[in-house]
């Protein structure tokens, strides 16, 4: 039986959704973030040395990294579904967005989360003005302009067909769901109508709703 090692409010929600789209039976082992540090518990290191989610075990295989897991699931269980034909322009777009999600979209979102927590972190009173100034300077001078650039780009791309890799829903849309949901939660991405419409489409999918019902709170950290 395929098992998803699932951390609350994490990227592993995408894996549950993909499995529901594929109709694959799976088990869930649940983990909870440390409420103070928001890090995954040390028990996850027994499954994978980095101790992060998502991690999937499927027979002898242990897989980490969202994109790699999604590609594995589609190749093994998809029977040609959820991926454009090899050699097509849509497949090239599919490959791009599968890598863009974590390689380009998520780093500024992570910086947004970190700088926000630095500004509100408990520090000695005489250090507070300094830490806030550094965090705010980084956020307004670099992070926010980068996020505006990325989500403006994403919004324009979604205007072509509503999906990321052509006219059909693919695993690239699953992969892109996390940065988009994170962007709406903490970076104002919902100001773009095409992004809001994308979220409405994916969240209306029965498989998405089943994944949320099984996985619990899927709201990205903010």
From TrEMBL:
GO terms for cellular component: cytoplasm. Pfam families: GST_C (PF00043), GST_N (PF02798). InterPro entries: Glutathione-S-Trfase_C_sf (IPR036282), Glutathione_S-Trfase (IPR040079), Glutathione_S-Trfase_N (IPR004045), GST_C (IPR004046), Thioredoxin-like_sf (IPR036249). Keywords: Transferase. It comes from the Bacteria. PROSITE patterns: GST_NTER. Its EC number is 2.5.1.18. GO terms for molecular function: glutathione transferase activity; peroxidase activity. It is an enzyme of class 2 (transferase). Residues 1-81 form the GST N-terminal domain. It catalyses: RX + glutathione = an S-substituted glutathione + a halide anion + H(+). PANTHER family: GLUTATHIONE S-TRANSFERASE 1, GLUTATHIONE S-TRANSFERASE-RELATED. Belongs to the GST superfamily. This is glutathione transferase. The lineage of its organism: Bacteria, Pseudomonadati, Pseudomonadota, Gammaproteobacteria, Lysobacterales.
């Amino acid at each position: 039986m395929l098992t998803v090692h699932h951390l609350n409010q994490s990227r592993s929600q995408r894996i549950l959704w993909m499995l529901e789209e594929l109709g694959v039976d799976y088990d869930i082992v649940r983990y909870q973030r440390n409420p103070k540090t928001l890090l995954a518990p040390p028990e996850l290191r027994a499954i994978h040395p980095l101790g992060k989610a998502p991690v999937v075990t499927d027979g002898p295989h242990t897989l980490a990294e969202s994109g790699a897991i999604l590609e594995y699931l589609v190749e093994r269980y998809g029977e040609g579904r959820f991926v454009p034909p090899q050699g097509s322009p849509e497949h090239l777009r599919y490959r791009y967005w599968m890598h863009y999600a974590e390689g380009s979209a998520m780093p500024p979102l992570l910086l947004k989360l970190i700088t926000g927590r630095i500004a509100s972190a408990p520090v000695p009173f005489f250090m507070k003005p300094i830490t806030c100034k550094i965090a705010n300077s980084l956020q307004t001078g670099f992070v926010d302009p980068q996020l505006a650039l990325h989500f403006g780009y994403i919004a324009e791309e979604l205007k072509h067909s509503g999906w990321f890799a052509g006219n059909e829903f693919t695993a690239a849309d699953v992969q892109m769901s996390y940065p988009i949901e994170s962007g709406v939660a903490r970076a104002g991405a919902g100001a773009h109508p095409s992004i809001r419409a994308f979220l409405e489409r994916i969240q209306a999918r029965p498989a998405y709703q089943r994944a949320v019902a099984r996985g619990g709170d899927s709201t990205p950290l903010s």
